[in-house]
Specification:
heterodimer; A: 6 helices; 0% strand; B: 6-stranded antiparallel β-barrel; globular
């Protein structure tokens, strides 16, 4: 229970950093998807168990977004589901695997966001979105995923040890 | 998408109470971000600031002299204003057009049609989606804000319109949002058109008839047509004319009157003459 509360607070802090702190600090420029990176790396480490946090993180972003409600959380969810299905190639390094995972989620989730906006009747310049948003984020997000993986891997190992201890006790 | 549209009402209902909790947190994070930004910016701009101080000192001297001259004009203008107010209140002067009433309304503090109220707000968040340009401000329904109300920055320059209202916060659609369209007028030629936001963060003046004249540096203001926004709010200046004579309408790139990357405090106009947004139900 305490672990879940801690994870919730960290996720909320990431969402607030992404939507409030970074825009104020960096101005109106492109900013990394912190929630996308953290939750996707967690799914890469934990598998389908991590999808709950993906949805929760997406919902937090949905609250501050003017896009149709649910679009961000569903895009993130589907992005991670696609990454789970595609995750067949043998990648020896766990860090590279997490980074590739985040790159895939970036492409799929932003692509779905664009599609959702188009279906909702909102104007979106697809060429501009591809060249000026998705391509730069394909560099920024996977690069930050390396740091996220280093931190979350420690959390995951501690979590695994705790789960193993609980199993033995049972 | 069907799921999205069906489930949209439930999360929207939750946004009201959640916004009360989230708004202080968003303010805290936004404040921390601004502080970080200030540290880096002030270090980088020190040299620039020294030059600016010298320039501003010269300007202060010039403006002090100009101020004395304007005080003389002020007394004269007050007399004209009284005359115009009288004209708008007296039925005999029905021939006085709406522009004159508008002018009187904007200038006279006691006029019934004046710009009655504005709510000051701080910017506390940006839209997480890189494809839309929205800001979150810390005033909402409880402060009298409604969807469609205009939001202005320094010098009453138009920033955008309220797109969504929660209990304690609102989301503002910026002029540069790709789905933002505003009816505007060119001050010098009186030509009317539409200013549309672009994905790259610029503004494009569209739908100006070929017969109307456009010049670089012409000032663009809101036209007030349609009643969605009050007239005469500054929008920007024409930077470049991009259309040719062969096109049906003239088009131009507009340089916005405000720097959208550095908006911190805004004013929501809650009531203005002929503005329909104030009539919407809470």
């Amino acid at each position: 229970m305490r672990w879940h509360v801690g994870a919730f607070v960290v996720l909320l802090a990431l969402a607030l950093t992404e939507t409030s702190l970074l825009p104020a600090a960096l101005g109106g420029g492109l900013r990394p998807g912190l929630v996308l990176i953290a939750t996707s790396v967690w799914v890469a480490l934990r598998g389908m168990d991590g999808l709950f946090w993906v949805f929760l993180g997406g919902f937090m972003l949905d609250l501050t977004s003017n896009l149709p409600v649910g679009l961000t959380s569903l895009s993130l969810l589907l992005g991670n589901v696609v990454a789970t299905i595609v995750d067949r190639a043998p990648i020896p390094s766990a860090t590279v695997r997490a980074s590739t995972w985040v790159a895939l989620v970036t492409v799929v989730s932003y692509g779905l966001s664009i599609a959702g906006m188009a279906i909702s009747g909102l104007d979106v310049d697809v060429v501009y979105a591809m060249t000026n948003v998705i391509l730069p984020l394909l560099v920024i997000n996977p690069a930050l995923a390396v740091i996220a993986h280093a931190a979350l891997n420690q959390v995951n190992l501690r979590q695994r040890r705790r789960e193993a201890g609980r199993t033995i006790a049972l | 998408m069907l799921v999205l549209s069906l489930s949209s009402q439930i999360p929207r209902a939750a946004e009201g109470p959640l916004s009360v909790v989230l708004t202080p947190l968003q303010q805290l994070f936004s404040g921390a971000g601004s502080a970080i930004n200030d540290v880096f910016r002030s270090a980088g701009e020190l040299q620039d600031l020294r030059q600016r101080v010298q320039t501003l000192q010269r300007q202060v001297d010039e403006l002090s002299i100009e101020n004395l001259r304007l005080r003389e004009f002020q007394a004269e203008v007050r007399q004209y204003r009284d005359l115009l107010n009288f004209a708008s209140q007296n039925p005999i002067y029905d021939v006085v057009g709406a522009d004159v009433i508008g002018l009187s309304a904007t200038c006279a503090p006691d006029d019934a049609n004046r710009l009655r109220a504005g709510v000051c707000a701080n910017v506390i968040a940006s839209d997480p989606s890189p494809f839309s340009r929205y800001l979150t401000i810390n005033v909402g329904r409880q402060h009298g804000v409604r969807v469609g109300m205009p939001v202005v920055g320094g010098g009453l320059a138009l920033i955008g319109r309220v797109g969504q209202v929660n209990e304690a916060s609102s989301q503002v659609q910026l002029l540069i949002d790709p789905n933002s369209y505003v009816n505007v007028q060119v001050v010098s030629s009186r030509a009317t058109g539409t200013v549309a936001g672009q994905s790259d963060g610029s503004l494009r003046l569209q739908n100006v008839p070929q017969t109307d004249n456009l010049e670089v540096d012409d000032i663009i203001v809101t036209s007030g047509l349609g009643g969605a926004l009050p007239g005469q709010l500054p929008v920007g200046r024409i930077e470049r004319i991009i259309s040719t004579d062969a096109q049906l309408f003239k088009e131009a790139i507009v340089r916005p009157a405000v720097d959208f990357n550095r908006i911190e405090i805004v004013l929501v106009i809650t009531a203005a003459p002929n503005m329909t947004a104030t009539l919407q139900a809470p």
